[in-house]
Amino acid sequence: MTDNSQETPAGAGNSQDPPAGAGADGNAHEEGGVVDKSKRKSLLVGLGIAVLVIGAGFFLYQEFIGSRSVSTDNAYVSGENAQVTPLTSGRVIEVLVTDTQPVRKGQLLFRIEDSDQQIAVQQAEANLAQAQRKYGQSLANNQALGATASANEAQINTARASLASAQASLTKAQADYGRRAALAGGGAVSAEELTTARQALDAAKASYQEAQAAVAQAQQNAASARRQEEAAVALTRGTTDKTAPEIRLAEAQLAQARLDLTRTIVRAPIDGVISKRTIQVGQRIQSGSPAMIVVPVGALYVDANFKEDQLGKVRSGQAAVLTSDFYGSDVEYHGKVVGFSGGTGAAFSLIPAQNATGNWIKVVQRLPVRIQLDPRELKDHPLRVGLSMDAKIDLTDAN
């Protein structure tokens, strides 16, 4: 007789044991979904250490590296371009340069027809010669007027002599008439003789009065001639044929005509590269009209637009290092800060920002900082106006 209580039915298992295949999968689920507490602590500690290291590194960078300089890529090459404008009008007969052509200071750029200017020079020369002759004529007239005045003064003496003679004749006539009039009562002198004496006396009086008038007339003529001389001399007094106003005016007009003639030949005002040539042969150009631009590629500078919160320690004279996309980071330019703009770009824009509005949003402004480049480096690696630059200013530079 068998004991059935000890037998286990087929397919039955212990209720506390996991099902077949469940043991391995259960352990895998526990290991993949839940991190062990000991490992979790070490991970948190490592993460904290990493954060501290990164923070310390950022602090050290800002303290010892980042705070020593400021940089921007909002920088562009600029230059004091020379605009070539003719100072006289005329027809262009020759143009000797083209765009992109390098030129030296004083090099011939173009010529203007000079026929009108040559005629103007000849006219000015003729006017100068005429002015010199007129000045010589004025001096001769002064001498002639002086001689006339002297002659008139001499006539005064002649008139006075005539007056004295008339005075003597009048005195004699008066005496003769007095004697005859005294004798006429006694019959010693006839009436006819007395009449003759009276007529002689009247004639002597008339001659005397005429002599007096002649003296007065001679005096007036002498005074008038002397005043005419003084008026003529006043125009030339204190002058020579070099300092006379009319001669100097004619010389100035001649100098202006010659200057206009020289201005028909236009030369480069500076060293540089020709840009924006707008003239052609045969074109009539007016005085002051732009003809071309000379860009001084050997004397360029950089306008670096730094943010306003970067400029607290920037000073004029500080050293700067710049690179250009034109050559890449392998070529460095060294320069000096020479100054700051008088205002931000927004302040000088055509339509300035209206900040006094209800929808105002603060925008960090940029201030242009001018950096002068080293001419020797520009000679080795030329730049062009408008190229982008990366600028970095050394804030530790005491200059």
Please explain how this structure is put together.
The chain folds into 3 domains: 69-80 and 295-349 and 363-394, Efflux pump adaptor protein, beta barrel domain (Elongation Factor Tu (Ef-tu), domain 3, Beta Barrel); 82-114 and 262-291, Beta Barrel (OB fold (Dihydrolipoamide Acetyltransferase, E2P)), CATH 2.40.50.100; 117-258, Orthogonal Bundle (Helix Hairpins), CATH 1.10.287. 45% of the residues lie in helices and 20% in strands. It contains 6 helices and 14 strands. Strands 1-10-13-12-11-14 form a 6-stranded antiparallel β-barrel. A 4-stranded antiparallel sheet has the order 2-9-7-4, with no helix packed on it. The longest helix has 69 residues, at 115-183. The protein starts with 21 loop residues before the first helix and ends in a 5-residue tail after the last strand.
| Coarse structural class | alpha+beta
Please give the share of residues in helix: 40-55%
> Which CATH-level-2 architecture of the largest domain?
Orthogonal Bundle
Global shape: rod-shaped
The CATH topology name of the largest domain reads Helix Hairpins
Give the termini distance in whole angstroms. Answer: 116 Å
Number of strands: 14
Which regions have little confidence, pLDDT < 50, spanning 5+ residues? 1-32
Biggest sheet character: 6 strands, antiparallel, barrel
Order of helices and strands: HHEEEEEHHHEEEEEEEEHE
User: What value does the Rg take, in angstroms?
Assistant: 57 Å
Total domains: 3
Provide the spatial order of strands within the biggest beta sheet. 1-10-13-12-11-14
Percent in strands: 15-25%
Average the pLDDT over all residues and give the rounded result.
Answer: 84
**What is the count of DSSP helices, taking H or I runs of 4+ residues?**
6
**CATH class category label of the largest domain:** Mainly Alpha
